[in-house]
Structures are given as C-alpha cells and as structure tokens.
Amino acid sequence: MPIRLHNSLTHKLEELRPIVPGKVTMYNCGPTVYSSPHIGNFRSFLFADVLRRFLEDQGLAVTQVMNITDVGHLTLDDVEGGEDKMEAASRKTGRTAWEIAAHYIGEFEECQEKLHVREPHHMPRATDFIPQMGAIIGDLLEKGIAYEVNGNVYYEIDKFPEYGKLSGKVLDELEEGARVAVNDEKKNARDFALWKVDDQHQMQWDAPFPGGRRGFPGWHIECSAMSMHYLGEQIDIHTGGEDNVFPHHECEIAQSEAHTGSRYVNLWMHARHLLVDNTKMSKSLGNFYTVGDILERGYSGLELRFALVRVQYRQTLNFTLDGLVEARRAIERVREARARLVRVRDGVEPAGADDLAAATEAAQDGFTAALAEDLNVSEALAAVFVFVNACNKASPSVAAATAALQAYERFEDVLGCFGPEPVADAASAAPAELLELLEQRNAARVAKNWGAADELRDRITAAGWKIVDTPSGARLEPN
User: Fold this and answer.
1) Which end of the chain, N or C, is less surrounded by CB atoms within 10 Å?
2) Mean pLDDT of 122-128
3) Which CATH number is correct for 4-271, 3.30.70.2190, 3.40.190.80, 3.30.160.250, 3.40.50.620?
4) Model confidence over 25-61: pLDDT tens digits?
5) What are phi and psi of 75, to 5 degrees?
6) Closest CA to 254 of 192, 333, 321, 341
C-alpha cells in the first residue's frame, strides 16, 4: 500500500518515494536543553517516533537523526533576537551553560525512555559539530551569499530568491522593526546569523572557517550541518513542530540549498501545537506541564504517550487531565482483551470454536490504511477498538487467539502505547492471602451475601489488585 504524507512545502498529500528505494532518511528537530521537557515538546517527538515505527512496519529501513541543541538557540522566535537560551538559563540559575546542557540532556533521555520512544540512530549535539558548521559557513562566504561584519556572519536572504517558500512569507511583508530589532550591521533586517561574536558568551570556539573570529554558531546552521553529516545533502523527511516552520526551517532550506545547489528535503512534516484545556500552555495560566509533572501525578509513560499520539499530528490536540484518565481506560481495555486471548492460547482458559480471522484481517487492514494516509492515528485507534469489541464478544479457538495476539503485538509495535503482552495467568503472582480473600469472596457470592462479597472486594482493591470475573471464574490482576 502506498504511503501518502502531507508535505508542508507543497501543502499536498504526496506519496513517499524514497531517494534510495527501500530506505528512508529522516531528520527530526529535537530539544533545546535549557529546561525540563514539557508535554508540548513531546507531541512533536512522539509524532516522529510513530512515523518511524510505521515506516519500519511497512518494511522500510529508516535512518533517524534527532539533534540536541545545546548552543545558539535564541530566546525570541524570530530570525535574530534575544539571547542564547542556554546563556539565559545559566544567568538565572548560576550554573554554567555546559552544566545546564548535561543536566537536561540526561532528563530528556529519561523522558524518552519513560514514554517508550524508540532510540534514534543518531542524537548529535550541536557543540560536537562546530567544524561541519564552519565548512558550510566558509562556502557561503566564498560564494558571496553570506557576509561578515565585525566578526558576525550573516546570511543575505536577498541572494536566495526562494526564501519564504516553506512558510509562505513574502519578503516585502517582513518589514524592518515589525518583529525584529533593528541591527545596523545587517543589509536586510531579516538576514540571519550563521556565526556570532560575543565576548561574554560562555560557549565559544575559534572560528571554523578562514578569517573568522572566535565566537559561536547560530541556531539554524546547526541542523543543516548535522543532517548532512549523517544523511547526506538530500534527505527524504524532515519533521518538527509548526513553530519550527519559520524561521528555523525556512533558514535551513536557504543555507542548505545555497550550499549544495540542490533540493534539501523532499517531505517536510510539521505537528500542530498542543493546547491544554483549550488554551495555549502557559505557566501563568497554571496549565504548563512537564513530562515529570504528569508522571508525578501517578500517570504512566504509556498513558501519557497514548494521550499525546491519539490525534493525527496535523489536527489540534487538546490535552486535559481527564484525557489521561480516558487513556488509562483505553489501555486497560486493550490489555484485558489481550490477557483473555493469552489465557486461551496458553490453555489457562477454555478455548471456543469462534474464528476471528475476518475481524483480525479487517483490523490489520484498517490500521494500515489509516496510517498510510498521512499517519492518521485516530482512525488507526478506531480500528484497534473495533477489534477489541470483536475479541471480547468471541469465544475464540486457540488458533484464532494466536492470530489475534499477533495483530495486537503489531499495534503495540507501531503505536508503542499498549505495553507488553500480558502473562497467561496473572493470578499466579498474587499473594496467597489475597487468593484466600478471593475464595472467601466467591463463597460469599454463592451464598448471596453481597455485603460480605463487596467488603472482601474492597480489601483486595486496597491491596493494589482487582477482581476480574470471567465465564471460567474470577481471577486477580494487578490494579
């Protein structure tokens, strides 16, 4: 089945046609490590993770690069404004920029693990690629596309007529002073920095290009250098959040294509912003959540992942705490359906004669079709839960249960939010005293002593277990 993805450059759905048949190169804009990662960051990161998983599911060999920005990202969201985010964090905390980077890189990697993100093949840090940035900057200076003033090097956007083709911004509309502070060094207010000189900046390097002064790189040049180092001059897919479109990705295109003389990226893909309680996430509004905040509230990484991937990446996702409760219930529905199938397959629960072949095939086909059409996770999940209902209504044979479990294993492999296959008999791990309470509760129900049965159930629940009633009897499972 062909895979069609929305290209932010052309505003159209386009069939994925890898540069090298059977292989996909993918670059994902990663974190700027100046603070704890928040759930808005992870909407974009998880979208990229599901994309990679699905491409691999479809038999494509993916090489994924996600960068870590530990220098050069400025605090204002225009082409050139504010101070380096790492420096700003250093000033506020009293720690060095290097210490801040090390701390938050570690925190980001922990969050990746807790949210079950498949590890990218390469996670380069910008500070390790200064020479590669210098090679591009030197080439742009030599071509006359970049210019130097007082040691600062700027990209002259008037030398790249296609500037604005990704964001749709027309240069004449980008008036000086509208969003960019006036800088008399620049030929055009929208020229962006490739290299900056600042004696107060903690992170500095000897200029990695001829005739340059000691300084540090601009944010945009970093991704071009790291992408080309690992993936070559032209790549298949580049992803990020919609806030990356301008200026970051627009500048990436300009400097990369001026450097190589060829197209930089075939498919640009951008995730929409995350809303929280239908408003933009803000600390002042009290609706700003880091990943750690959510986990500290008692929700699991699987539940947070489900809540963040459940809506197609180009649709607005409204995050709520109630949505996490819904995620918990949804995951539990899948887990219970899988657990019953495991018991049938492994002979713990009697098998029936029902054939789930048609339902299994429909679920597999619906799941694939939804994701092949611009990674529509919402529709893919709909196919999964239709399948859950079919499984719950059936009395499957061993063969049917085995085939259904293989389908669930695939759904987990692609979406990553349902967890591992349950064990055949969770009750075997329950403490002996709880199994005794379960027997007492069963006896109370037979005697129609409902009050005693409810009291015994509550004692089991308080111990962290729950009773699951099935046609073949009651069992205990961890709550």
Assistant:
1) N
2) 98
3) 3.40.50.620
4) 999 999 999 999 999 999 999 999 999 999 999 999 9
5) -80, -15
6) 192
